[in-house]
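request received
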Amino acid sequence: MHREFLMGNEAIALGALAAGVKVVCGYPGTPSTEVLETVAKRRGEGVHVEWSVNEKSAMEVAAGAAYSGARALVTMKQVGLNVASDPLMSLEYIGVKGGMVILVADDPGPISSQTEQDTRTFAMFSKVPLFDPSSVAEAYAMIQDAFDFSERHSTPVFLRPTTRIDHGYEAIDVKDPDEYRVATPEGFVKDSSRWVIFPRLSVRNHALIEERNASISQEWDMSRDFIVREKDPAIRKGVATHGINWQYVQEALGEGTCRMLRVGMPFPFPEKAALEFLDGLDEVLCVEELDPVIERGLTYVCGKHGLHVRIRGKLTGDIPPSGENTTELVSAALASFLNLSTLQLFNHSTPPEAPALPVRPPVLCAGCPHRASFYAVKTAMRGRKTLYAGDIGCYTLGNAAPLDVCDTCLCMGAGIGIAQGVWRTEPDTICFAFVGDSTFFASGITGVINAFYNQADLTLVVLDNSTTAMTGHQPHPGTGRTMMGQVVEKVSIENVLRAIGLKTVVTLDPLDFEASVSAVKAVADEKGVKAIVFRSPCVAMTKPPGKSHVDPAKCVGCGRCVGELGCPALIRAADGRKAIIDETLCTGCTLCEQVCPVKAISGGDRNATEVRHA
Amino acid sequence: MRRDFILCGVGGQGTILASRLIAAAAMRRSLQVRAAETIGMAQRGGSVCSHLRIGEGAHSPLVPKGCADLIIAFEPGEAVRMLPYLKADGAVVCATRPVMPVSASIGRTKYDAKAMLDHLKSNVLNLTLVDVDKAAERLGTAKALNVVLLGAAVASGALGFDVAEIEAAIREKVPAKFLELNLKALRICGTTRNHTTSGFFSTASDTTSTSTQRCAKRSLAPLRRRMAPRL
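response:
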C-alpha cells in the first residue's frame, strides 16, 4: 500500500487495475475520460486499453472479453450509455463470465453534458445492478467489489460516479502493483445455448434476472448500504441519501443528529436495509441529485409493508427537481426538515452587492481553426438562406456571437440527419452539417450514407483538427495512434466519403481564408451530397511560431477583426476603437491578418506549426 | 485545524497546476487533502475554479460559501464572482490584469475591470494585488502566472505554507525544463512578509479556541445541542 493524491477517475482506474482488469475500452466524454487515460498510463503487461470508435463498440469489445473470462471495464459518460444501450440491454439477458464493470459518469448540473439523465434509472430499466460511490476512496474500493460481484452473479454491473467524485481529489491509500489480482482467463467456451440470444433464452433468463435481483434486494451488505443511528431515540426523522450528497449531509449535520441511510446500491433497491432504516421513523427526507430514485424506492417499501412514514424529497418539492446540489442547499433543506429554525448553517454574511460580473461562457480558443472554418462558410453564404446544423465537440462553441454558425445541436452525429430533415421540409435552404473528426468516426458516417442513399441535398463540413479536442486530445481512427502506443494506418475521412459514393470531396486549409471562401461557394452550389474537409491541427497541440501584432498607425478602428471573428486574443484598445492583440493568447493563426481591410496586422505564421503528440 | 482555499480564473490560466502544487505541499506534511476541479467545456475560456480543503474535518470536496480562508484569483472579475465563498476575515490574492470576455470585446456585454478592483479594495481587508504584467516582464514570459500568484499567496502569509514547502512541491511536480522558470516565478513577488505560517496546520492541541469560533459560525454542530429539544 502507498498513499497518493488522486482524482476520482484516477482512483477508479487504479482500482480496476488492482482488481486484475484485462481489457479496458471506452469513448471519451466529460466527466469520465481520465479513467481510461489513467489505465493507459499505469497499466502493466497484459492489459489492453483502447479508445473505441464509440460507446457501442466499446461495450461490445468489453462483453466479448468478459465472455472469455477476462475482467473487462468499459467507460463512458451518461449520454454515451444511450449509444451503448443496444448491446447492453441484450447483454444483461446473456450475462458474463469474467467480471464486467460499466463505468458511467453522470453529470448533475449539467456541467458539460446535454442531459441530466440518471444512470440509476437506467440500471432499473436494464436490470443491471449499480454501485454509487460517495467519495474518491470509496470509488477505489467499490470498483474492486464490483468486479467480484459481477463474477459472483454473472452479470455486468454499473459503477456510477458523478462529476464531483470523478473530478474530486483525495489523498488515499492504494495497492502496489505486486498486490494486484492475477488470474488467467479461461477463454471462450462454445455453448450456443448460453451465448446466442433467442426468444426462448430471453424468457428463461428474464425470469432468472428478476429472481436474482429480488434476492439481492433482500441481502443487506452493510458496506454498501449503511445506517448511521441517531443519538436521541426521540428524534423520529431520518435522512436518506447517496453519492456525493452523503458528504454534503455529513458536512451539514453532526453524526447522530438523526438517523441516516446511505444507499450505495440503489438498484436492486436494498429493501432489507430500508426496512431497518424506516423502523420507528415518522418522516424521511431523501437528499438526491438527478432522479428521485431512493425517494421512489422508500415510498414503494412503505406501500408494500404498510408503513406510515412520510417520504419527502424531490417529488414533494423539498429538494430541487433539477441541477446540482451543494452543501449550502442541502444544509438549508435539512435545517427546514429538522426544524432547526435558525438557518445559520453556512449562512455567511451576505457580501456587499458586486458590480456587474463579466459574462464568460466558454468560447473557441484564440487561433482555433474552427473559427476560420466557420467564418469562411459564413462569409461565402452571406445573403443566402442557410441552415448550419452543428454537432457535439469544441465546434458547438461556434454558436456564440459573433460567429453564430451553429443553428442546431442535439447529440453525437445528429447534425447530419437534422440537416436532411430540414432540407426535406424547406428545399430552398442551403443545408450544412458540421461535424468534428472524432464525431464523424463515432456516429457521422451512417448519417452520410443515409443522405447519399436517399438523395438528399447537403454539404457535409468535417472540421478535422486531428484530435478529440473537447475532452482533452484523445487519439481516434484518423490520427494514426492508439492508446497502446502503436503508430497505425490512419483511416482517411476523404476515402470513407468517396467510398460511400460522394463525387465532391474537397480538402481545405481553413487558415487560407480566400481559398476557403471560394471553395465553399463552389461546393455549396453543387447538387446532392458533397463534402468539405477543413484540416488544421488543434492549437492546443501546436507550438505557435509567431504572433500577430496590430500596427496602430495603420489600424483605422473599423472593428472588423474584433467584431466579426470573436477571437479572445483580439480586444479594443483603451480608446475603444483600435484593435490590440493579447500576445499571451495569440497563436499567430493569421486569420485576423487576412480579414483586416487595411492590412494593419502582421507577424503571424499559419504554416510553421509543430504538432505535439500527447 | 482546517484551511479552505479557492483558486479561480479563466479556463487556460493554469489554476489546476497551482491547486496541485498546494495539495502536494500539504501531502508532504501528511495532511488530509480534498479538492475539486473544473474540467470540461468551461476550460475553453469560461470561468473555472478549484476548491481545495486541507486538514481534517472536511467531507465535501467543495468549499461552502463563506468558508474560504483564501481566494487566489487569476483575474479580477473572477475574484469578485467567488467573493461569496470568502470568510469574513479571509484573504484574497488577485492578479490585476483583466481578461476581456469575447462578448464584452464585441460590445454585447459590459466588463468594467476597474470596478472589480475597487470592489475588492473596499470589501477585502486582507487583499494582495499582483501586477502580473510587471512580473511577466521580469520573468520574460507570461507562462508562469500561476506560480507567480502562488508566490504572492505565500508572501501574504495566508497560504499557511512557506516558500521552501512550495518549492519542494514544484520540484516534485513540474517537468525539469520548466523548473528554473517556476522557481524564479515563485519568488518574484518577494518573500518579505515572512509570516510564521506553520501554525495554520498545527495539530488539535493548539487549535481549540479559533476552530470552535469558526465552527460556531459555520456548522450545525453547536446549534444542534441548543435545538435538540425542539426536534
